[in-house]
Design goal:
This protein has 419 residues and is mainly alpha-helical. The chain has a single domain, classed as Alpha/alpha barrel (Glycosyltransferase), CATH 1.50.10.10. 48% of the residues lie in helices and 4% in strands. Strands 3-6-7 form a 3-stranded antiparallel beta sheet. Strands 1-2 form a two-stranded antiparallel sheet. Strands 4-5 form a two-stranded antiparallel sheet. Helix 3 runs parallel beside helix 6. It is globular and about 55 Å long. It binds alpha-D-glucopyranose (GLC).
């Protein structure tokens, strides 16, 4: 029988399209931003050169303003909606017009730190450094216009947690009238009961059409969006990426970039405290348009532990990993919430990438036991249910797409920590 490592590597190879990796065949036939950066961390275990290339390909499609798009449509494929014709971003190689969690700075530092080929790592990290820094600068310039230290997402797809309960209330402000008729493709590849609803899709598309009507001028979109949400998980990823990029810049002798990113991280860390909810024992999203915290105990507020947070907060987060009493941590939403749905995408299921980042953050914060519990349970889940896109936290049932790239990459990372 093939070992977990062998299966994981086989999946990464199978989904490799030469210079980028698709998340899975059929459902997601292009390159996704945060998928690729996390995928590189898996690839480095058997092919360092290929790992660097994964991130380099993504950054070859960075916009002149600094934004790195959430999808790069390398080749036409009818199996996915909305495709390049709907986005109409007018790029040399078509891309979407929104972004995704900026995990690149973190991935870059990890690749660099652990690379066996030091000379190549130095050259390739150096070439990527300024590009990642430009992305970070873009975030604070366009998504934090009031200079609070925290950035907003303007579309749920940017969070990477597409249909989280976090977005339900702010979504009420997004209209559905006037959108062009469309046919979804995702529900042809996966069970519709495990995917976002039609009402949500209408709003996803309304936002895309609205941004398109503003010619994808990223300097204007934040203020023009009826959806502006400050997500603690997203901000934690950005803050961690800034801190990691600062360390990397220092190691590579770029003092100015190091200082700039250090200051983004420090300001973000301080501002993060405004999202803490003592009652929930976690961080919450803030609806920037309404100026209020969103009462929704999602995993976004636990993922906050990925950046440096006060020790007392990390302890509360560690204690809540199993709070839901689910068989497998970490549920993407609290089962105590009546809106929880253990099979529907980001409204309950477990996702290995999120487990990986929470475990990493908790270990750094001194919560080793909770981190080890997440790693061990993640591997148990794979042994029981295979390499799916996401899983029911109660039953462990594999859900969504199969032979999934970033799940395989995370397995290689978890196995390395165990070994
Ligand atoms: C889904 C996920 C998103 C991911 C993409 C590709 O849209 O919600 O986070 O990047 O699939 O795997």
């Amino acid at each position: 029988m093939a070992s977990l490592t062998e299966v994981a590597i086989a999946i990464l190879r199978e989904n490799d399209r030469g210079t980028y990796t698709v998340p899975t065949k059929g459902l997601y036939p292009f390159q996704w931003n945060w998928d690729s950066c996390l995928t590189a961390l898996g690839q480095r275990h058997f092919d360092e050169d290929r790992a660097w290339l994964e991130i380099e390909t993504l950054f070859a499609h960075q916009w002149p303003c600094g934004m790195v798009p959430h999808i790069v449509f390398h080749q036409p494929d009818d199996g996915y909606f909305p495709g390049p014709d709907i986005w109409a971003t007018n790029r040399p190689v078509p891309t979407s017009g929104i972004t995704q969690p900026p995990v690149a700075g973190f991935a870059l530092k990890r690749l660099y730190d652990l690379a066996k080929d030091r000379q190549t790592a130095t050259a390739r990290a150096r070439a990527l450094l300024a590009k990642v820094a430009a992305w970070h600068r873009w975030f604070y310039a366009t998504r934090d216009p009031a200079g609070e230290g925290l950035v907003a997402i303007i579309h749920p797809w940017e969070a990477g947690r597409d249909n989280s309960i976090d977005w339900d209330t702010p979504f009420e402000r997004v209209p559905t009238e006037g959108i062009a008729p469309y046919t979804r493709r995702d529900t042809q590849h996966a069970d519709p009961a495990h995917r976002p609803t039609k009402a949500q899709y209408d709003r996803y598309l309304w936002l895309v059409e609205h941004f398109r009507s503003l010619n994808w001028d990223t300097a204007k979109l934040h203020d023009a969006s009826p959806f502006q949400v400050v997500d603690p998980g997203f901000n934690a990823i950005l803050i961690r990426a800034c801190a990691d990029l600062a360390d990397l810049a220092e190691a590579l002798g770029d003092a100015a970039l190091a200082a700039e990113n250090r200051s983004f991280a420090a300001k973000g860390q301080a501002a993060m405290e405004s999202l803490w909810s003592e009652r929930d024992g976690q961080y919450l999203c803030r609806d920037r348009v309404a100026g209020a915290l969103i009462e929704s105990a999602s995993v976004g507020g636990l993922l906050a532990a990925f950046c440096a947070i006060p020790a007392s907060r990390a302890a509360r987060i560690a204690a809540s990993i199993d709070r839901h009493g689910t068989r497998f941590p970490v549920a993407s939403h609290s089962p105590q919430d009546p809106r929880y749905d253990g099979k529907r995408y980001w409204r309950g299921p477990v996702w290995l990438v999120v487990n990986y980042m929470i475990a990493d953050g908790l270990a750094r914060a001194g919560q080793e036991d909770a981190a080890a519990r997440i790693s061990a349970a993640s591997l148990d889940l794979i042994r029981e249910s295979g390499f799916a896109e996401y899983y029911d936290p109660q039953t462990g049932e594999p859900l969504g797409g199969g032979r999934f790239t970033w799940t395989a990459a995370m397995v290689l990372e978890f196995l390395r920590q165990e070994g």
